[in-house]
Amino acid sequence: MTDFVLTGADPHMMLSHLALCGLAAIAEEEGLRDVRLSWTPGMGARPVLSAVNATAETIGAAVQRHAARLDDAGSWLNRQLSDTEKRALMSPRISVIADIDGWRSLQDRRHDVLDQLTGARAILDLRLIAALGEPSYWRRNHKGDRLQDDGASRMEMQPRNQGSEFVGNRLRPLAAAVAARTPALISDGLRGHNIRDEIGKDDTQSRTPTGLADPGPTDNALAWCALWGISQLPIALRRDDFARTTAHLGRGTAGYFALPVWSGRWRSARYRSVAASAHLTRFVESGLTPGGVVRPAGPNGVTAVGTAAREWLAARGVTGVVRFEVRRFGSASAPERRAARGAILKTGRS
Question: Which parts of the sequence are annotated with region: Disordered (predicted)?
Fold first, then answer.
């Protein structure tokens, strides 16, 4: 096994966690063998990707191939809402669709994409689309107004000002930027050796992190992998409420995200099962009141309420869970959401 360390990634930033699981998913999709995820030991833990006979060059090449395929004009990333509407068909949050014919057209075109991807056995693409969600034609408030955004993942935090949306305004330009790089430059960016924010023009207020970290220059290969990491955290659609997002706690767009850190090497499937477990949720909730104020905690950072959950997680190698508060910035009509710097809740497993 060869270890590829994301040396510039901070475990207190949600971007780092999603970059690891997104990179692993991409590596598996591109044919790397026996892909595993882990963290370096010690206080300054960093995410690690391991694979058989992998090198920095082969990992960079895998990410480059993946981005190039999605950058293709025929890719689902480049499907539009209509022949005259350039916004992306597969974005989960779009402007309001007013009439039934518009909804039928949207659903027919989306189903066509899903049928094509299913026929091609494009599992990772389907995972991401499913995890992002869709505009919810079925949800209305007490006034009868449609709540389209309630079918979307809470991890999709692209600001909606001036009609912007996730696939067209974030995934499309990232695909082009990463596809244009050499494998060596991609691997350098992933490891933090040479950070290049092409789509954000290296601006100090770049929104390339898309809510997964504070604004600032973010390597585009790292951001690409992080946004594909959403594919590993699915949602559950609900008829009478907003969709439930894996690893999200709280109602609406507020609340917290929570993701594990562990010892040993995990496969992506194990990551998905632990992240989606009720035990992880209960462990994090045990340190919160209904209002979101931390309760007095014991020596391991949790109350007695979460003891069973803590033991379950520790038995599976989880050393801690990082809790990220979701904060809102900007205008009330088009707020910007961000995952704040995380607090690590220890399970007691070393």
Answer: 196-215
